[in-house]
Amino acid sequence: xxxxxxxxxxxxxxxxxxxxxxxxxxxxxxxxxxxxxxxxxxxxxxxxxxxxxxxxxxxxxxxxxxxxxxxxxxxxxxxxxxxxxxxxxxxxxxxxxxxxxxxxxxxxxxxxxxxxxxxxxxxxxxxxxxxxxxxxxxxxxxxxxxxxxxxxxxxxxxxxxxxxxxxxxxxxxxxxxxxxxxxxxxxxxxxxxxxxxxxxxxxxxxxxxxxxxxxxxxxxxx
Length: 222
What we know:
Largest sheet: 3 strands, mixed
Mean pLDDT: 87
Oligomer: single chain
């Protein structure tokens, strides 16, 4: 097994399994939903999953999907779901393919609420039409299960480095971190000022000898 495949497997273990699924599992299992109650975290769970999927879609897509492209978020989300979601989950989402990302991801990210739709927990079905509300409803727990099973599919493909997926994931990740380091490191902070932190989660570059091509975040370029 080559070095890139081993590094990609470690990335999946540390970042995807450790941070992404670790946070999600805590939200889903430790926050028990109360019917018609507040504090169920249905919105944060659903939005967090979209964030994970979009990022992994960017890393894993056959052709890179830059932010300069049209509908890049939708393209990244669907690239990942079409590649790694199990068919039983995809079949529930496909009837709403044109609007799924706009309704749920964009709604939750930009308007707090899903757009003319709801997010629930423990319905047992990924996406349903609520006759009472006359709206679509996304189940956050089922979305978590769909994402969790997709990670197992991603792990298998990466372990075999099918279509050089390990290579491109690492290359894109490192390019992105290199771009971020160039643009967003704090400036004009005295080097003698040091503040200890506890359990800080921060993206770190992977030790690869890769020539980077910048930028990936076109909208951030002046």
